[in-house]
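Suppose a colleague, Dr. K., hands you the sequence of a protein chain of 237 amino acids and asks what its three-dimensional shape might be. Before reaching for any lab equipment, you can write down a predicted structure in token form. Begin with the sequence itself:
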Amino acid sequence: MRINQFIAHAGVSSRRKAEDLIKSGQVKVNGSKLTDLTYQVTGNDLVEVNGQQLRNEEYVYFMLNKPRGVISAVTDDKGRPTVVGILAGVKERIYPVGRLDWDTSGLLLLTNDGDFANYMTHPSHQIDKTYIAKVEGYATKENLRPLTLGMKIEGQKISPARYKIIRTDKSKNASIVELTIHEGHNHQVKDMFETLGLPVQKLSRIAFGNLNLDDVPAGKYRELTHKEVKELVNLAK
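The predicted structure, expressed as tokens, is then:
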């Protein structure tokens, strides 16, 4: 495994930042300062970053049903609950794949596999992500039509999406809409509905690629099977 990948896999930094650590002399292999960015780490090598020994973890993959009010982060300087905190029993140094807003619930992946995380989050890989949104206003085929055509949000072109109107309630001026996208820009779903004049009141991600939350209650998690991980990677490729 290449040294920058090894450092990233150990949860220290991204691969790109790992190269900066090497260039600045903060990485040692077998007691000697490393300068070769292409160095291939073997099972016998002792790798240290700033004096801390790194260990090569096995890759792990989890699916969490994130509750509202939890931050999609490893730690939080304000002391708020984090998704990694929910998985406190996991010994590997995992991190969330992408993010869900603190007030958005639903399916979130966590892993220590940087390549997998990139496959899942890069827009070019077009992994479907399905949400259920409770919006203010009366949703119709007419006012939701721009979703299927591709929209511009803050000057950025958004790919066409698929939707299904689940329920509308004129008396409460509210609607429930299922929306499937394959991108994951910050606040994208909220911004899409806001642009249509249907501000989101409540949002949950119910599916990610071939995964859904049928067997994972709110606030709980489970490890993905080898088959599920392979299917997700194949979808991305």
